[in-house]
Amino acid sequence: MYYNNISAVSYATEYALSPNDKFVYMKPHGKIGGDCASFLSQCLLAGGSRMQYNNLPWFYHSTSSSPYYNCSINWSVASSLYWFLMNNSTKSNYGPKGKLLNDISELTLGDLIFFQNSNQKIFHGSIVTSFDGEGTPLISQHTYNGLNVHIRSEYFKDTIYYVRIFI
Question: Considering the entire predicted model, what is its pTM?
Answer without folding.
Answer: 0.93
